Amino acid sequence: MKFELSQSSVKTLQDHELLSRAHALAQDERRAGIALLHHLREIERRRLYARSHGSLHEYVVRELGYSDGAAHRRISAMRLLQVVPELEAKLQSGAVSLSTASQVQNFVRAEKRMTGSEASAQELRSLVTAIEGKSSRQTEAMLAARSPQVAMAIRERPRSIDGSNLQVTVVLSAELQEKLQKLRDRFSHQNSNPSLAEQLEMLADFALRKMEPRKEANREAVVKDVRCARTHLLQLDHRLPRAWGGGNELTNLQLLCAVHNQLKSDRLPHETLCAVLGE
């Protein structure tokens, strides 16, 4: 069913028709959202995002136009859907939202990192059932009851509060507080009472100044692959692998993100050689 989108057309609808159409649009939106999750899963499986991006998240933000938070929620829900297929019906009915599904996935991932124990498929199903009809706040409380330590770790993650600023909740140990006090004393001639954000900026500026000479010295030494803009955990790669006769000369070296380095290693020898020779 097609719907008029103009404001003037909507104003002419009778009350019952307006309510009925709003309900149908919500159903269509949820259906389209679920279809997107399936598409994202297949894009990830084929690693199609790596043609121009270093991660699926980067692809969803830059190519599909979602915000960081919206992209994260959809990717997290997609991964939970892989393990709990029953989630699809709950998403379609509205019993579970993308946000609460994402909360469950984020929680069990953090729990695995902290404890080394991975939630079973049955546990995930139980959690999905438990969040039916719950708001994000109620889901957060339920998960916190399962493990307060994991919930606290998740709260420490940055959250966007507008287009350019992030809000972070962090627990400072006594040792870190002492170090920050020394930092404040050291820079008191510049700012006698800096905020925590200003202290972090001081540290970042200091670290970058220390690193910059080394970066400039190596800038011309290695050619960076331009398929993506990732700068985190780059890996040094031989354009033509040493096992196939490649040397350590600078022209045979490049920096790749982990995804593109893996894609390159998945190629057959003749495919890599053709890529090197530009054929």
Detailed description of the structure:
The protein is mainly alpha-helical. It folds into 2 domains: 7-167, no CATH class; 220-279, no CATH class. The chain is 60% helix and 5% strand. It is built from 13 helices and 5 strands.
Question: How many independent structural domains?
Answer: 2
Strand order in space, largest sheet: 3-5-4
Derived from helix and strand composition plus strand pairing, the structural class reads: mainly alpha
Overall helicity: 55-70%
Proportion of strand residues: 5-15%
SSE string: HHHHHHHHHEEHHEEEHH
Instruction: Compute the separation of the termini in Å.
Output: 50 Å
Summarize this entry quickly.
With 279 residues, the protein is mainly alpha-helical. Helix content is 60%, strand content 5%. The protein has a 3-stranded mixed β-sheet. A two-stranded antiparallel sheet has the order 1-2.
